Amino acid sequence: MKKWITRIGVILLAICIVVYIWLGEEMKQGVQPAANGTATYMIVLGAKVKPGGIPSLSLENRLEEAVKYLKKYPNVNAIVSGGKGGDEDRTEASVMLKYLQDNGIDTNRILVEDQSTSTYENLLFSKELLPKGTKKITILSNDFHLKRAKYLAESLGFEVDVIAAKTPKSVEIKLTLRERAALLKTYIIGY
Question: Which residues form the DUF218 domain (predicted)?
Answer without folding.
Answer: 41-174
